[in-house]
Amino acid sequence: xxxxxxxxxxxxxxxxxxxxxxxxxxxxxxxxxxxxxxxxxxxxxxxxxxxxxxxxxxxxxxxxxxxxxxxxxxxxxxxxxxxxxxxxxxxxxxxxxxxxxxxxxxxxxxxxxxxxxxxxxxxxxxxxxxxxxxxxxxxxxxxxxxxxxxxxxxxxxxxxxxxxxxxxxxxxxxxxxxxxxxxxxxxxxxxxxxxxxxxxxxxxxxxxxxxxxxxxxxxxxxxxxxxxxxxxxxxxxxxx
Length: 240
What we know:
This protein has helices spanning 18-26, 66-69, 83-90, 106-119, 134-143, 162-166, 181-189, 202-211, 221-228; strands at 2-6, 31-39, 42-45, 95-100, 127-131, 148-153, 171-175, 193-197, 215-218. The longest helix has 14 residues, at 106-119. The protein is globular. The two termini are 14 Å apart. The model has no long low-confidence stretch (mean pLDDT 95). Helix 1 (18-26) packs parallel to helix 3 (83-90) and helix 8 crosses helix 9 (221-228). The chain has nine helices and nine strands.
């Protein structure tokens, strides 16, 4: 079962920062999940729409400026990085699940991924794009059919994983609290990968492994690896 470092190794370093990304790589992560919002014309890596949850700033992320963000403390002296800075930091050493948050993120994402492939040596199969905003994901898939998309849900819908299949998704990402065996079985019948978030308890990991999920997002990838056993995948093949 694949272990995906949630927001980098966010249980060991400030989440979504370059330190968290480096820590995840150090621990042998073959995939990292991160969150992006648009500020000015760039994508920045931060989870919440409000600055005060993860930085010493205040206000809405999208109303900030890149200059202002560069001066905020995101924990232990870390800064809020741009997505390009993260792409440079990781430098193709693992695959990425980029979760789209906020507004107007599709076009800058498309441009950045193209640049990452041209200038940093990433392969197209190293990217999986996810969101709770399913219309946004659908539009992205229509613009870039070759991109893999992951449909996020924090519920167990009546139609189980039908919504993800209808979107042409590669995977469905479900909250651990709603990862019922029936949902997992339905998703697998539809040919979807199943990734569960956020899983930090060993008992949950082992139960999900028994149920046949394809991977878990964990804040503690080292502990997850110790629980589930070694899983080494070459970069570029995680989302294959």
